[in-house]
Design goal:
Length: about 170
């Protein structure tokens, strides 16, 4: 193997010729197969940076299996809506909705997040909301509230520290 086709001990020609074909057969989509292979290579590289992998091809196959399983579990959270459940204008295209379990999990997480945000001091909560939810820049927030950018940075840092602390207490 030449160094140009080897990456962290993995022969990339093998990964794209053999492994990608197997992933494509399992997913039925070359684009999804490439995404899974690339996600697997990134995960593999994160491990390979910390410690040498004795059997890189076998380990990469294991990582691919994990990524495929995760992708399957994630896709199982979504259900196809029937035409009778869709508005008339959307009935012609495929529409997906989260499963009941996924909706319950989302609702639970949103409730916890709301409780955590409610524990922030009012100014801190306002700046956090403007920055994280509404997507304003720190400069825009400073101008809007009539405070310095340093004050906005401080309040954001305080919000993150407080959120971590409250989140740990509520768990």
């Amino acid at each position: 193997m030449s160094a140009a086709t080897t990456w962290h001990g993995v022969d990339l020609r093998w990964a794209y010729a053999d492994l990608l074909g197997g992933i494509q057969r399992r997913t039925g989509c070359i684009h999804r197969a490439r995404d899974i292979l690339h996600d697997s290579l990134v995960r593999f590289a994160l491990v390979a940076r910390r410690r040498p992998v004795e059997e890189p091809h076998a380990y990469l196959r294991t990582v691919v299996g994990s990524v495929l399983a995760n992708q399957y579990r994630e896709s199982a959270r979504w259900v196809l809506l029937g035409d009778d459940e869709l508005p008339a204008e959307a009935a012609s295209s495929e529409q997906f909705a989260p499963s009941a379990e996924h909706l319950a999990e989302i609702n639970q997480r949103l409730g916890l997040l709301q409780r955590i945000i409610d524990h922030l001091p009012p100014r801190c909560r306002q700046i956090f909301w403007l920055f994280r939810v509404e997507g304003n820049t720190q400069a825009e927030i400073a101008e809007q509230l009539g405070v310095s950018i340093k004050a906005v940075e401080y309040q954001l840092a305080r919000a993150l520290v407080d959120l971590l602390a409250v989140g740990e207490r509520l768990r």
